[in-house]
Amino acid sequence: MSVSSPTRRFTVQEYHQLGAVGMLHEDDRIELLNGELVIMAPVGIRHIKTVRRLIRVLSQAFADHCLVDAQNPVWIDGHSEPQPDILLLRPEADEREHSPQPEDVLLLVEVAESSLHYDRNDKLEAYARSGIAEYWIVNLVRNEVIIHRDPAGAEYRSVTTARAGERIAPLAFPETMVEVSDIIPR
Asked: What's the CATH fold of domain 41-183?
């Protein structure tokens, strides 16, 4: 016989209070998603290299038009403040006194290897529900970029995949293409 233990969901405000009283620290690899404190897996070298490549490629292509942010939180609802790998944000997001919100996000990118299941399920559903218009998963397992657009409920109606040799552009800047090969390390 198994007994289920009760759990407690946290709000974003309570999550921040845990940090303020010293229970969570800035360098802890923890994020809040759907009211749960999620312990993030250690970051591997391919993940690190891919995030660096994304910062370089996306900054070169879009820094004159938006903010390129890396591994900082986005407030998506009262129970979720994940820390995506990359965000392209509207410039006015930098003027606010709080974390960016879905309406500030032009593109959200997660780099996935050991976190692939989490990024393709839990995070995808949370991002779609909050109305994040475009979500890319850089899938290091298959060396591809999975492009999710047109959120509806807890899913995206448009899902396409791009691989080495192909070019992609975010919806916000359709005229500016980036090479998938420039994003994914060999």
From this structure: tt1808, chain A (3.90.1570)
Count the Cβ atoms, other than its own, within 10 Å of residue 35: 17
- Residue 103: how many CB atoms within 10 A of its CB? 12
Residue carrying structure tokens 């299941």: 117
Question: Which among 59, 85, 57 is positioned nearest to 73, based on CA atoms?
Answer: 85
The number of angstroms, rounded, from the C-alpha of 105 to the middle of its chain's C-alpha atoms is 10
Q: Provide the token pair at 20.
A: 């303020």
Q: What is the pLDDT of residues 154-168, one digit of tens each?
A: 999 999 999 999 999
- Which amino acid, 174? P
Who contacts 3 (Cβ-Cβ below 8 Å, separation ≥6)? none
Full-model pTM: 0.93
**Any idea where the domains of the chain sit in the sequence?**
41-183
Instruction: Point out which residues pair with 158 in neighbouring strands.
Output: 149
Sequence-distant contacts of 146-150: CB under 8 A, at least 24 apart: 146/120, 148/124
